Amino acid sequence: MEISTLAAYHCLLLAWYFFVLYSLTHLRTEERPSEVFLYGGQWKYLTVLNLFLQAVFYGVSFLADVLRLIKELRCAKCVISSRDLLFSVLAFPVSTFVSISFWILYTYNRELVYPRSLDGVIPSWLNHTM
User: Fold this and answer.
1) Which residue ranges does UniProt annotate as crossing the membrane (predicted)?
2) 98-127: per-residue pLDDT in tens?
3) Tens of pLDDT, residues 29-75
């Protein structure tokens, strides 16, 4: 894949994750059940932290692509190695764990991970993007 196409792809995904995080943090607060976001707000949930981690990863990926496009090879090598380390140590394991554990628990007992009281608070499209 060409570097410019890859840069556009990473920029698009970075914008998508920022949009999802923005939408998640600006939910209507008056409809929330009081016991759900009591301490730490939404940032105590691994799903939200995973969204933030994915946004950071795609930001670093976009930066690496831009540096490769402008031929800053010394900086690009450092950013690419940090991107690869971020992906292999945090982004892939955390997102895999979040996805697998959420859907296994959701199949077993939905109330453990996503109570029915949240259906009116979090839109279904936002739930599926997380």
Assistant:
1) 7-25, 45-64, 85-106
2) 999 988 998 999 888 888 877 777 877 887
3) 565 555 555 666 677 778 889 999 999 999 999 999 999 888 878 88
What pTM value is reported for the model? Answer: 0.84
Query: What is the Cα–Cα distance from 99 to 95, expressed in whole angstroms?
Result: 6
Q: Output the CA angle 61-65-66, nearest 5 degrees.
A: 115
Yes or no: say if 58 and 17 are a contact pair by the CB < 8 Å rule.
yes
> Residue for token digits 């923005």?
22
Say if CB 7 and CB 69 are below 8 A apart: yes
